[in-house]
Amino acid sequence: MVSCSCAFGAGADVQVFTDRAAWEAAVSGSVTTETFDTDMADAGSLAFGTGVQSDANEPLGASLIHNVSGGAFSARIRNASGTNGYRSIDWTLPAATNAFGCDFTSISSSRGVDISADFDGSGVQAFDLFAHFGNGSSGGFFGIVSDGSFASVRLSASGTGDNDFFGADDLSFVAGEACVCDTDGGGVLNVDDIDGFVAGFIGQTAVGDCTADGVWNVDDVECFVACFLAGCG
User: What is the pLDDT of residues 37-81, one digit of tens each?
Assistant: First the structure.
């Protein structure tokens, strides 16, 4: 299977790819790839060189894996109660994007890994990596191209086994420019962004200085409103 086009919500379109070349042909813009060349010891949070932040959530037990070694990312996750793993891993991108892809290894059929995000603003969608790679395969490429934008993805255990240890390499995304009215960095414009701008404007912080000129005035309000109405992405 190379790709599928899956519609979620009114006017929404999310394309799923299991072939990197096809994904690269479908994206527009500059692609940034994290190759995991720098080793990082086990820790709850890891900051990759491309600006991607990896956060491991809800540690269970003492045998925890969330590191970079030998040119690859490794993690262990759990789907429910028990020990030895994290409940989920969040990858936060440096700016909202509409295209993301990564090579995964050791995706077990009995345990499995889901990748999820609000890819297009219609709500969180989850994809079973093993199901997309095909029966008998434990790894491969998984990519998303959306007509919306998103700023993070979550990796969580989807199977019934005790845990899933998996690897990842060549984490790629289209490098987007920061959207000045997406004040919470969520990749979706909503009331939280309005609240963030208002708080930043009153407190005279960078979030409220939409024009980035060091002065908080009506120009910033007009800048924010115009950006919010036009949308990001």
Answer: 999 999 999 999 999 999 999 888 778 899 999 999 999 998 765
Convert 188-226 to b/e letters by CB count within 10 Å (16 or more is b): bbeeebeebbeebbeeeeebbbbeeeeebeeebbebbee
pTM for this model (two decimals):
0.73
Inter-residue contact 125 to 148 (CB < 8 Å): no
| Rounded Cα gap, residues 39 and 29, in angstroms | 29
Torsion of CA 180, 185, 191, 196, to 10 degrees: -70
Separation of alpha carbons 185 and 205, rounded Å: 15
CATH of 3-174, one of 1.10.4160, 2.60.40, 1.25.40, 2.60.120: 2.60.120
Closest to 164 in 3D by CA, of 90, 82, 101, 91: 82
Domain residue limits, the chain: 3-174, 191-230
pLDDT in tens, 184-231: 776 678 999 999 999 999 999 878 888 878 899 999 999 999 988 887
> What angle in degrees, to the nearest 10, is found between the helix axes of 191-203 and 218-230?
170
